[in-house]
Amino acid sequence: MSLNPLKLSEEVRSFLDERHLASLTLLRPDGSPHVTAVGFTWDQDSQLVRVITWAGSMKSKILEQTPNGRAVVCQIDGGRWLSLEGTAVVTSDEARCREGTERYASRYRIPQDRQDRTVIEISVDRILGYA
Fold first, then answer.
1. Is the CB of residue 24 less than 8 Å from the CB of residue 50?
2. Which one of 1, 27, 88, 89 has the fewest beta carbons within 10 angstroms of its own beta carbon?
3. How many distinct structural domains can be found in the chain?
């Protein structure tokens, strides 16, 4: 079921606040998929998914090679699932990394401090699923 990212029901928003892991899918420069388990946060106001990572991770490297590539985060819990899709960028901007880290800490746990912190931001333009 296709959902309007700007008008999510309370059930969907609640599901996005629950502590679940997800899969992140990125396309490598050769077109093959890279799928990995991640923690993520949803920012309803900005329509952003944020995934914290580090500069040397494969996720960061792929997005450095294919800026503004497409990405999908998919959260699953039994019969409930949501795929959040959009254009992705990776950044080491201090304020954006701090925002991503604080949101991650609120949803999951306080992450280990890193000097090479990066954050992936997905500007969501499509949500599919059932929550």
1. no
2. 1
3. 1
- Domain boundaries, position 101: 2-130
Q: What is the CATH number of the domain that holds 48?
A: 2.30.110.10
Q: What pLDDT sits at residue 67?
A: 80
DSSP letters along 32-51, please?
Answer: -EEEEEE--EEETTTTEEEE
Tens-place pLDDT, residues 111-122 = 999 999 999 999
Rounded CA separation 88/86 (Å): 6
In 3-state terms the chain splits into helix, strand, coil percentages (rounded to 5) of: 25, 45, 30
pLDDT computed for residue 34 by the predictor:
97
40-80 pLDDT per residue, tens: 999 999 999 999 999 999 999 999 998 889 999 999 999 99
